[in-house]
Amino acid sequence: MSSPAPLHSAPLSRPHLRQVGRGGDTYPRPAIYNAPRDAEGRIVFAVPPPQPTVEAERRHRKERLAVSFRLFARYGFDMGGAGHITARDPEFPDHFWVNPAGVYFGHVRVSDLLLVSHDGRVVEGDGLLNRAAFAIHSELHKARPDVIAAAHSHGLWGKAFAAQGRLLAPLTQDSCAFYEDHAIFSDFSGVVLDASEGQRIAETLGPRKAVILQNHGLLTVGQTVESAVWRYIAFENAAQAQLLSEAAGTPRPIPHEVALHTAGQMGSEAGGWFSFQPLWDVITREEPDLFD
């Protein structure tokens, strides 16, 4: 199946500032307007736009990471201290940034993030490292050099679906994004604290975008923070839709060939990056303290 053609917008015709709100405060236009444009001024996104320097890319990833934790809090993916999202460092690819243990997702700031080495040392930041985060994510990043970010939490619907020990069915257009591109890790043995279990999870994930951790929760990966986090949100949503549909009656799955075709339309890296942009706009406008 050929790849879908890049999407295009209408040409840009207005400045990048607009008046929003009763007080006349000036806010940036939505983030999508900052995407690359063709010679005619139309937005084109076949791949996410690159940053000009390593430092800018690091800041970009850390800001998206902080926003992602705020999003997880809003979606209710904040079960106590459970859950973690990581982003590979652009200068030191065997290091990754992660949230400190014990900090509420809705309070995470850029300055709170920890830089962790391949051997589990915190080399930047003064928070507490979640050992389960290291055990899982260090092995994922090691096994998948293409992966920039990985997201895992204990969302209610994801846990409920994971307890059933089966793959997601192609019941909706949105769920087709994961069709034949996710796996089940069925070897639950308690809290993941040993790198060997993280290695087995990475092996089960293989080249896919997501894995269901049976009796545990969901995990997604991506080539950007934006795509990995959007995939987690979408995976939880698809699990919820399937459980509700099955509770209401007998759902009718999308046929195999149509599901495969739809997967090509719905499951791309660029699509995940794009879907994250409105969420970025909401959080950055309403919670600017995250940039501290």
Q: Please, could you describe this protein's structure?
A:
The protein has a single domain, classed as Class II aldolase/adducin N-terminal domain (L-fuculose-1-phosphate Aldolase), CATH 3.40.225.10. The longest helix is centred in the C-terminal third of the chain and has 24 residues, at 225-248. It contains seven helices and ten strands. It is of the alpha+beta class. Helix 1 packs across helix 7, helix 3 (156-162) crosses helix 5 (225-248) and helix 5 (225-248) crosses helix 7 (269-286). The strands form two sheets. It has an eight-stranded mixed sheet, with helices on both faces. It has a two-stranded antiparallel ribbon with strand order 1-2. GO terms for molecular function: actin filament binding. InterPro entries: Aldolase-II_Adducin_sf, Aldolase_II/adducin_N, Aldolase_II/adducin_N_sf. Residues 63-243 form the Class II aldolase/adducin N-terminal domain.
